[in-house]
What we know:
- 74% of the residues lie in helices and 0% in strands.
- The protein is mainly alpha-helical.
- The protein has a domain at 129-273.
- The longest helix is centred in the middle third of the chain and has 37 residues, at 76-112.
- The protein is extended.
Amino acid sequence: MKIAKKLTFVILAAFISASSLMTGCNETGEESSYVSPESKVVSQTEKSTEEPESAVISESSAESVVENSEPKEESSEPENSQPDEESSEIESSEEIQESENSEESSEAENSDEKSAAEMSTDGYQFDDEQIVKDYHNATEFTNNEEFNKIFSGNAIDAEYKKELITAQSGNQMRSITVSYTTKWMDLVSVVYKSLEDLLQDRPEEYEKLLTSQDEWINSVGTVESSFYAEASDAGTEGLLAADAAIMNYFKGRASVLLEQIYELNGSIQLSDYGL
């Protein structure tokens, strides 16, 4: 009997407990917070799948914030204006350079048109030094290389070479050489007179010119005699060589005086002297 009562009590207690669990209510009447293990697993799975989506949304939002926070690109107008300014500066620089070149060219042209008095330098000093020692083979007579190049194209030399080729004998060649020596003698007088006129306003240089010309004239006879003395025993060929040396002696004097005119004027036209 006692055992039956105990069993009845245990069954009743279990029933009450099961009933309480089934209603899902606690003693206070609130809804039970009980969650089955399976529900927990589902809840955790849902959370794990939802978190990456939230993270993606968060990253996307961050990118949007970064993009919005970046400074806006400048308008195309300021960018285009800078090359225009640089181009304008380059064009302006080129115009200035062209203007300077034009001025230099104009000055050079004007300098060519200056008179002899304007072209002459204050440091000019008359110098009639002749560098030639061997007149038999002389081709240059001054130290001024630029002038020597100009003088080498003189007409008298060109005509002499052409005529000399036509000679049929040594005596004929001597005759031609003597005739061209006379031409150089005449040219010396012409060039000397031109230089004398240019030095009228330079008393010191003018006096040097007179002195040097007198000395040169006085030396002509002695030089001719020495050349012929050397060729006295060399026959026609030797005499022809002496003739050529004497011709070069007069030619050299004309060259030295012309070079002085070139120094004074800064240029020279050989055609003005029949050359």
